[in-house]
Write a structure and sequence with these properties.
There is one protein chain. The protein is 28% helix and 34% strand. By secondary structure, the protein is α+β, with helices and mostly antiparallel strands. It has a single domain, classed as YaeB-like fold.
């Protein structure tokens, strides 16, 4: 995924927020600004180049002392970001750095 182009799209508000993500963000008390911060300033910790429809990636950043993950897909032809989900990672699935998945 071309992170530079993704971030340009987000900065220009060329974003589509999936209905599902709004429901989850409300349940999880995550606001849009925090999701954008994760994408704009965070670290890409997983890259899903072969995801269906468009390549996507998992981003991580601590925002206001809260660790957050955001999954975003990017349509490079339309220069459009698709916010798939946002959540607070848990230590059952991730190591204490919130970036490394635990081995099963």
């Amino acid at each position: 995924m071309d992170i530079k182009k993704l971030r340009i799209a987000v900065k220009k508000e060329n974003i589509e927020w999936r209905k599902h993500v709004f429901q989850r963000m409300l349940e999880r008390n995550i606001d849009r600004a925090d999701v954008k911060t994760v994408i704009m300033e965070g670290e890409m910790i997983e890259n899903y180049e072969d995801d269906k429809l468009f390549p996507s990636a998992l981003f991580f950043k601590v925002v206001n002392i809260r660790p957050l993950h955001t999954v975003v897909a990017f349509d490079k032809k339309q220069n459009k970001a698709y916010i798939i989900t946002a959540y607070e990672p848990n230590l059952e699935m991730f190591e204490s750095d919130y970036k490394t998945r635990k081995k099963k």
